[in-house]
Design a protein that fits this description.
By secondary structure, the protein is an alpha+beta fold. The chain has 2 domains: about 120 residues, no CATH class; about 40 residues, no CATH class. The chain is built from 4 helices and 8 strands. The strands form 2 sheets. Strands 2-3-4-5-7-6 form a 6-stranded mixed beta sheet. It is elongated, with a radius of gyration of 24 Å. About 5% of the residues have low confidence. The structure holds zinc ion.
Length: about 180
Amino acid sequence: MGKSSKYLIPLKSLSEGVHEYEYTLDDAFFGHTDSSEITKGTVAAVLTVHRTGDIFELHFAIQGNIVIPCDRCLDDMTLPVATEETLYVKFGEEYREEDDNLIVVPETEGTIDVAWYLYEFVALTIPLKHTHKEGECNPEMEKILQAHSSVEASDDGESEATDPRWNALKKLKETNN
Ligand SMILES: [Zn+2]
């Protein structure tokens, strides 16, 4: 995610008590993530770090909009995001995730980069199936999809017969055998 120093929280040097960080996750933020389904976004995140001794409670309040491809027509669609997450961080020998929300960071470094967590928390809100509202899909794609599904319904499930090129290919394979 490139230079993410503003996402690097200097836990070790924080005083006891509450510290607040505000972020705007924009197109550049989401664009920098390689394995990203999210192409764009404008998401506000408020991170509150509460230090008690060497235990840190990180509370994330995340709200905004992201842009992802629609499952049905593949065009961009906007999805509202609103989520809250809490992470606990303590120091240890080396970095590890003790469980889903307890992170151990090396005491020698004493920092945590929250960029990845911010991204992950946003990504977790994406429903498994996400499509435009009924009637708002790309009309060209909708026509193709409808034509395809009506052919499929009318030929007893043998949908491979829909494209004559596949038959030609099959014949070719058969004669080669
Ligand atoms: Zn769509």
